[in-house]
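Customer ticket, subject: "Can you confirm the structure for GDP-mannose 4,6 dehydratase?"

Message body: Hello, I'm evaluating your service for our small team and ran a test protein. I'd like someone to confirm that this is what the system normally returns, since I don't have a reference to compare against.
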Amino acid sequence: SADGSRVSPTLGVLFAVFRQVHGIVRRSSSFNTGRIEHLYKNPQTHTEGSEYCHMKLHYGDLTDSTCLVKIINEIKPTEIYNLGAQSHVKISFDLAEYTADVDGLGTLRLLDAIKTCGLIGSVRFYQASTSELYGKVQEIPQRETTPFYPRSPYGAAKLYAYWIVINFREAYNLFAVNGILFNHESPRRGANFVTRKISRSVAKIHLGQLDCFSLGNLDSKRDWGHAKDYVEAMWLMLQQDEPEDFVIATGEVHSVREFVEKAFKHVGKTIVWEGKDEKEVGRCQETGKIHVRVDQKYYRPTEVDYLQGDSSKALKKLGWKPRVAFEELVKEMVDADIQLMKTNPNA
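Agent reply: Thanks for trying us out. I re-ran your input and got the following:
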């Protein structure tokens, strides 16, 4: 982002804060900007710019240091938000080297590009850290001082990124922060993430387009918040006088099983659980149909069973607290997917 006007974000998205926003997009043989199409001046022709601000996308990749230097030198941004990653935890076990390259070394490449371009004194850098750093949790709830114990290649790569950000902050006096964000969701969540998989599947079942879907560990417990609340926290971190790292979370814990139950309840279905382990199924009390099954292929080689964040530091120093409650989040995601599947059943 460049040419930032520092006003409080009322829409909870970065595009509402800055007069000029730049993004990096990987080259693909098909359009891969569906989740930001509403920000185009003309979504049909992908004309850049919108009623909110000027938006410009640049082809680039976190694995290509040359392009990062070129883009940053051209834009000369005031704030950089590194939200780029191979961010699917389960897939990181299959793409461990790539995940390390993008999530770990990609962060280093960005930081080095800032230094190479001589922007250490003028840029503020936000690193999207993650609750997956805590993995096999060492205390409950998890806060900024909780020891890390990552349980995936994704978590391990993000741990390197976390510490290299701190190293650049201390070695070069760069204003760089880690936002240790717990799970944050919205209707724009990727389709292969568990919350969106649930909301999409429930919408399809509600519309008669699907009978049943499969999940992994139903008893994984997560601290789920709304992405728009968390983006505001990211922005607030870069508006402080001194750079500090913050945990951003709701402090509430819900299981995957509970997310399923709330989603179905919103469309008038009560899920009753039968069986154990991989034989467990979720049956609709009203119709007797099985709508949910358990499939071992969705389990991780090393599970993270329980994540609960303590964001009291963010409340004290940033004045931040979450606004969207868990049930409201679930309902918003299901409603959005019902509308999506009505217009495009193959979405």
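A couple of notes from the result: DSSP finds nine helices and 15 strands in the chain. The longest strand covers residues 18-25. Feel free to reply with more questions.
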